[in-house]
Design a protein that fits this description.
The chain contains 12 helices and 19 strands. With 371 residues, it is an alpha/beta fold. Strands 3, 5, 6, 10, 11, 18 and 19 form a 7-stranded mixed beta sheet that branches. The protein has a 6-stranded parallel beta sheet with strand order 14-13-12-15-16-17, sandwiched between helices. The chain has a 3-stranded antiparallel beta sheet with strand order 2-1-4, with no helix packed on it. The radius of gyration is 21 Å and the shape is globular. The structure holds zinc ion (2 copies). The site of one zinc ion has 4 residues, from loops.
Length: 371
């Protein structure tokens, strides 16, 4: 069986031959991997910047964390999945430490010790292999109609968790404690920073929830990403045409900034544009290369005088994967072809590193097995 693995000590990434995995516990499931998406984290692994940590006692890590697979064998105690089912695996595994209340409660995305593992990133083999074995409880079933776009489930979970946090934060306002989710979203305006896959999926989810959305990014107006935002009923503004300092004037009161660009200067400049009672959510991880100038007094004054909240979010819970699966169906129904347009190419395994370092496409996918 073919798999893509990274050897950190040798600083090498290559396609290798491995023995196919076997079902090891009665609750595990063997999958044929269909698609694996590539993202910025894979680029960092290929550059030996971050992640790529082999499991304990091993010298290499099988990469790939944004996977879509098909069940080919289910252990005798598996109750919810059977051969032929389309599934997406959850990435993070609990740290197992007694002092981590988050992992103990089943929410390792909030792990308090940092000793979690993530399949394909840190300490556990990933999914960029022809077959993988996974425990039933870490798999989320998708309807068959999501075969072509199901690989976007994991990147969509970033927005799912972020919006869940947004609702929690909105509910702190005393007159909204009992409000329904749709009441909390109603009439709100969001600014999305960045038009990569995380930003565009965020835009789709925010539009699906009924918010007015403006996407602000580097690319010129009129190009593919801008046209996609407009097809979703959003507005696209290019950093080349509109200075960050005039965003609130252009967009109106900004209730939510969904940061998905990983660019700290842009993010902190946009933070000064956040409206009263607004929420700013960081999802991007910038490099560690340089210091930036920040209008600290302006930002601090507004944070206080406008009751604002800034939060960061990483990873996602099982419930976010489940809502992503539902919302992919909803997005496909609302804007046919929009999700498909995010997948800019399907490639063979040996192109993993080249694509991980490239970034010119929106979402490049390794097509591991034909449907
Ligand atoms: Zn990713
Ligand atoms: Zn933990």
């Amino acid at each position: 069986m073919k798999a893509v693995a990274v050897w950190p000590e040798r600083r090498q990434v290559s396609v290798e031959d491995r023995a196919p995995p076997v079902i090891g516990s009665p609750t595990s499931v063997r999958l044929r991997v269909l698609d694996v998406g590539i993202c910025g984290t894979d680029g960092e692994i290929c550059r030996f910047d971050y992640g790529g940590t082999p499991p304990p006692g091993e010298d290499h890590l099988v990469v790939g964390h944004e996977a879509l697979g098909e069940v080919i064998e289910a252990g005798p105690a598996v109750s919810s999945l059977s051969p032929g089912d389309l599934v997406v695996p959850i990435v993070r595994r609990p740290c197992g430490r007694a002092d981590c209340s988050a992992c103990r409660a089943g929410h390792p995305d909030f792990c308090e010790t940092g000793a979690y593992t993530e399949r394909g990133i840190v300490g556990a083999h990933g999914f960029l292999a022809e077959e993988v074995v996974e425990e039933e409880r870490y798999l989320v079933r998708l309807p068959p109609e999501l075969r072509e776009v199901g690989v976007l489930t994991e990147p969509l979970t970033i927005a799912e968790k972020a919006l869940r946090q947004f609702l929690e934060v909105r509910r702190r306002l005393p007159w909204l404690r009992q409000a329904t989710d749709s009441e909390l979203f109603a009439g709100r305006t969001a600014l999305v920073l960045g038009a990569g896959p995380v930003g565009l999926l965020g835009c789709m989810l925010l539009r699906l929830r009924g918010l007015s959305v403006t996407v602000y990014s580097r690319g010129p107006a009129g190009e593919r990403r801008a046209r996609l935002v407009e097809a979703l009923g959003g507005t696209y503004l290019s950093t080349a045409d509109v200075p960050t300092s005039s965003l609130a004037e252009r967009v109106g009161r900004i209730d939510l900034v969904y940061e998905a660009a990983g660019a700290s200067q842009l993010a902190f400049d946009a933070l000064a544009q956040l409206g009263t009672n607004g929420v700013f959510i960081f999802t991007g991880v910038p490099g560690r290369k340089h210091h930036i100038q920040v209008a600290g007094d302006v930002i601090m004054r507004r944070l206080v005088l406008r009751n604002q909240i800034v939060l960061g979010t990483v990873n996602a819970d099982r419930m976010d994967f489940e809502s992503a699966a539902r919302d992919l169906v909803g997005i496909r129904k609302a804007w046919p072809g929009a999700l498909e347009a995010l997948i800019t190419g399907r490639h063979p395994m040996d192109r993993f590193c080249q694509l991980a370092g490239d970034g010119s496409g929106i979402k490049d996918v390794i097509a591991v097995s034909a449907p």
